[in-house]
């Protein structure tokens, strides 16, 4: 059965039963809208939602996190002009926060008192025995010479021991730069309180609840009454998660409003008939509602990548309806009756829109072949949307247009194709001009790609995060907090099944760090073994000997800056072995599990303060996981840094595969539907030209790939083929380039415009990654449209001229004979 025969059998039935079909469609759409609302109510912005469940970092989050005390904190960052007032405010706020329910707050830290007292008593036990012995021997030798300060006979200044006494006296004291024991900069302008919930949560609810409770306590204290210049911000994992979720919801709302308004405006400018617009929008609404209703059953939630598929599906899915209604109105302008016009539009556009919609669908579906859930779910929902919008157009538009025409006839006046008719005449007259232009753009693209230098992947996380977070949000205040602590506060957590496995891993890690030397990216590693050190009895004896050597005369000859600390060291409390129970509560909490088990957790702190780029993340990941593999231990590593690095590894592995698969599927579909090698080759050549110009432009702008914009190439293959297919298919049917561009060219331009609107709506997003994706995808649409409307018609016109030139000599020969 041919397509024409199918339309003549199907369309009359759809028209006769239009009431049943339209009411059924409305009912299905209403039910689907309910489930779509459930889908959009479950937005998940966590990075772990993008990776496969089998990724090591995700497995660690799922299995280790429930056993640990919270590794996510809420940092309350104060900035003001009155240091004393800020300290009073911190005292009052801490008192209020500690009174909150234990289900919200487990601990509040904002002073170093406990750590200071601990180090006063046990600090020397954290020195290396070799250093203690060296220090003892040097003082002993000086005392034996009756010259404890090693003053030479020529009255030269005393030489300090080889082991710095200051290091012995301060012994790992981290809070020497804090003001008055608060987590505060020395000048007092910045102060930080750290709030720890009882357990980590990647869900929005518990984190938003904590943040809201803290904000209420802050408001109740009226901060301006303490210091009119006092500003308060939030950072840390809790604040970042809540901020990301809020930004995701805000970006989603703004992009949805933008795409709906601009698409409606474009439809009005093109059709200027409310009946035609209502038909297109009605079939699109049915397809989109069913798409996202089914997505709730298939996926169940939206992540940072799939949240904006609504705008994309609207912008792409509407193209089928636009092409169908444009062909229908063309037939109506020719005087064809409604039913016959519907049959002819249905059969004439079926093949080209099938290639366009299912080409886009296959390109989306190619992403489902990746392990990256952010793309596989994106691909499944996107492919489903293309298929259902196409199906909705060909089942709903005939009865819907018939119903509209029966009550509100659509005026079949001429469309706005004069510009495209002029374009056709220009292409026919000077095809070489557009072909040369296309060749120049291809040359430019090749040169841009060849001259590209640097990393292909974006390594600076600041360039893909939310802009507001950098200017006044969590990342901004995190920078303020870093000024206070001057060290990384986000450790990589190692958790083992048994203490001996952790010890083997840490030994392997220590060996690798020694090899790296000064290029070691880690600052320190904390575990039960480092906090309750070995060989304490020997160290206690050595400390006692050193104290006995620090006589008043010896101390009097020390440099002035060391004398007070030397006296404090000598008169300090008796040193006894440190136990787990002696550790400050913050450290006990950090290295023990929620059930009280200790000895299976280690904390690894990066050396660099602030954001790490991808190269630094990869170096740390290889160091940590390489040590685990070397030890052959069952140890898991947990940290957001590892999630980011794992995401980039998946992109590097899956991006080429998804891109090649999308191209292969689109090529096969074009061959299947066009059924002519030359026509298929023409379509693919136009598509590849547009994609090549896109790649060249991106290379010239030094665009780097990230976890979102890598999908631009696969989906551009699927969506960009739409325009070339419609032009070539229509040209094969009519043979008139001017008619093709006047009628189909304007519809193709509108299709591209709605798709560009769908992508461009993402450019208003606060997320730089999302805005960049929208810009790059919109650029892909523009380059493919340029090729379809300018270069492709010029090529077709040039082919016509060659055929005509070949026919003329043959006619002359015939006449001459």
Gist of the model:
This protein is mainly α. It contains 29 helices and 10 strands. Helix 11 runs antiparallel to helix 28.
Question: Would you give an account of this structure?
Answer:
It is a single chain. This protein has 817 residues and is mostly helical. The chain has helices spanning 3-16, 18-41, 56-64, 83-98, 113-122, 129-144, 165-170, 204-221, 236-271, 274-298, 309-333, 338-366, 373-407, 418-429, 431-450, 467-471, 474-485, 499-516, 528-531, 536-549, 552-556, 560-570, 585-591, 614-631, 640-674, 677-700, 712-734, 737-760, 768-816; strands at 43-44, 74-79, 107-109, 190-196, 231-235, 302-303, 492-496, 522-527, 601-606, 635-638. The chain has a 4-stranded antiparallel beta sheet, with helices on both faces. The model is unreliable at 146-163 and 810-817 (pLDDT under 50).
List the helices and strands and how they pair.
Layout (H helix, E strand, L loop, with lengths): L2 H14 L1 H24 L1 E2 L11 H9 L9 E6 L3 H16 L8 E3 L3 H10 L6 H16 L20 H6 L19 E7 L7 H18 L9 E5 H36 L2 H25 L3 E2 L5 H25 L4 H29 L6 H35 L10 H12 L1 H20 L16 H5 L2 H12 L6 E5 L2 H18 L5 E6 H4 L4 H14 L2 H5 L3 H11 L14 H7 L9 E6 L7 H18 L3 E4 L1 H35 L2 H24 L11 H23 L2 H24 L7 H49 L1
Parallel strand pairs: 1-6
Antiparallel strand pairs: 2-4, 2-5, 3-4, 7-9, 7-10, 8-9
Helix pairs in contact: 1-12, 1-13, 2-10, 2-13, 4-8, 6-20, 8-9, 9-11, 9-28, 10-11, 10-13, 11-12, 11-13, 11-28, 12-13, 12-25, 12-27, 14-15, 14-28, 14-29, 15-26, 15-29, 18-24, 24-25, 25-26, 25-27, 26-27, 26-29, 27-28, 27-29, 28-29
């Amino acid at each position: 059965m041919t397509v024409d025969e199918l339309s003549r059998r199907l369309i009359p039935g759809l028209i006769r039963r239009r009431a049943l079909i339209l009411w059924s469609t409305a009912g299905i759409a209403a039910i689907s809208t309910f489930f779509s609302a459930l889908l959009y109510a479950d937005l998940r912005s966590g990075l772990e939602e993008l990776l496969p469940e089998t990724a090591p970092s995700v497995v660690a989050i799922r299995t280790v996190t429930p056993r640990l005390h919270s590794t996510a904190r809420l940092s309350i960052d104060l900035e003001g002009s009155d240091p004393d007032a800020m300290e009073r405010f911190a005292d009052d706020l801490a008192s209020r926060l500690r009174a909150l329910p234990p289900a919200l707050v487990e601990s509040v830290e904002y002073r170093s008192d406990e750590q200071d007292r601990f180090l006063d008593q046990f600090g020397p036990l954290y020195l290396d025995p070799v250093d203690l012995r060296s220090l003892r021997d040097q003082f002993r030798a000086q005392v034996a010479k009756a010259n404890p300060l090693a003053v030479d006979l020529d009255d030269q200044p005393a030489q300090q021991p080889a082991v710095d006494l200051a290091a012995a006296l301060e012994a790992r004291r981290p809070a020497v730069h804090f003001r008055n024991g608060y987590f505060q900069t020395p000048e007092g302008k910045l102060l930080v309180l750290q709030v720890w919930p009882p357990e980590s949560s990647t869900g929005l609810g518990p984190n938003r609840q904590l943040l809201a409770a803290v904000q209420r306590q802050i408001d109740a204290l009226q901060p301006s009454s303490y210091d009119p210049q006092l500003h308060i911000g939030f950072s840390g994992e809790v604040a970042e998660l809540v901020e990301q979720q809020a930004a995701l919801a805000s970006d989603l709302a703004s992009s949805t409003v933008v795409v709906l308004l601009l698409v409606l405006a474009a439809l009005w400018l093109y059709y200027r008939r409310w009946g035609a617009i209502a038909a297109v929008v009605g079939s699109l609404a049915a397809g989109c509602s069913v798409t996202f209703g089914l997505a709730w059953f298939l996926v169940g939630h939206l992540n940072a990548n799939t949240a904006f598929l609504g705008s994309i599906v609207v912008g792409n899915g509407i193209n089928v309806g636009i092409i169908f209604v444009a062909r229908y109105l063309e037939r109506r302008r020719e005087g064809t009756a409604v039913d016959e016009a519907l049959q002819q539009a249905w059969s004439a556009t079926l093949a080209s829109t099938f290639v366009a919609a299912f080409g886009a669908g296959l390109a989306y579906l190619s992403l489902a072949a990746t392990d990256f859930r952010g793309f596989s779910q994106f691909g499944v929902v996107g492919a489903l949307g293309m298929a259902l919008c196409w199906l909705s157009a060909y089942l709903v538009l005939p009865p819907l247009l018939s119903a509209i025409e029966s009550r509100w006839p659509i005026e079949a006046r001429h469309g706005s194709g004069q510009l495209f008719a002029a374009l056709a005449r220009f292409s026919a007259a000077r095809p070489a001009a557009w072909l040369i232009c296309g060749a120049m753009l291809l040359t430019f693209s090749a040169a841009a790609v060849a001259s590209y230098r640097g990393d292909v992947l974006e390594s600076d996380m600041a360039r893909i995060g939310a802009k507001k977070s950098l200017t006044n949000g969590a990342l901004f205040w995190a920078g303020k907090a870093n000024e206070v602590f001057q060290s990384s506060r986000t450790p990589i957590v190692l958790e083992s099944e048994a203490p001996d496995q952790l010890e083997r891993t840490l030994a392997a890690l220590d060996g690798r760090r020694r090899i790296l030397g000064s290029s070691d990216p880690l600052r320190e590693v904390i575990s039960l073994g480092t906090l309750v050190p070995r060989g304490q009895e020997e160290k206690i004896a050595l400390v006692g000997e050193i104290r006995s050597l620090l006589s008043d005369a010896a101390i009097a000859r020390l440099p002035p800056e060391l004398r007070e600390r030397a006296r404090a060291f000598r008169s300090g409390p008796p040193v006894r072995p440190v136990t787990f129970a002696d550790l400050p509560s913050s450290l006990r909490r950090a290295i023990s599990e929620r059930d009280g088990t200790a000895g299976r957790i280690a904390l690894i702190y990066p050396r660099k303060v602030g954001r790490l780029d991808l190269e630094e993340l990869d170096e740390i990941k290889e160091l940590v996981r390489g040590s685990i593999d070397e030890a052959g231990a069952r140890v898991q590593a947990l940290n957001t840094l590892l999630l980011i690095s794992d995401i980039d590894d998946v992109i590097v592995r899956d991006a080429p595969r998804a891109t090649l698969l999308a191209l292969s599927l689109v090529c096969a579909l074009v061959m299947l539907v066009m059924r002519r090698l030359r026509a298929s080759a023409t379509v693919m050549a136009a598509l590849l030209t547009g994609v090549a110009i896109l790649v060249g432009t991106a290379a010239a702008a030094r665009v780097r790939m990230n976890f979102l914009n890598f999908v631009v190439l696969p989906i551009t293959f699927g969506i960009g083929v739409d325009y070339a297919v419609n032009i070539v298919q229509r040209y094969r049917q009519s043979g008139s380039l001017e008619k093709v561009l006047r009628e189909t060219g304007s519809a193709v331009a509108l299709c591209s415009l709605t798709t560009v609107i769908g992508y461009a709506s993402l450019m208003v997003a606060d997320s730089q990654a999302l805005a960049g994706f929208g810009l790059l995808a919109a650029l892909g649409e523009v380059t493919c449209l340029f090729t379809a409307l300018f270069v492709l018609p010029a090529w077709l016109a040039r082919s016509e001229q060659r055929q005509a030139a070949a026919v003329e000599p043959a006619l002359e020969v015939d006449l001459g004979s």
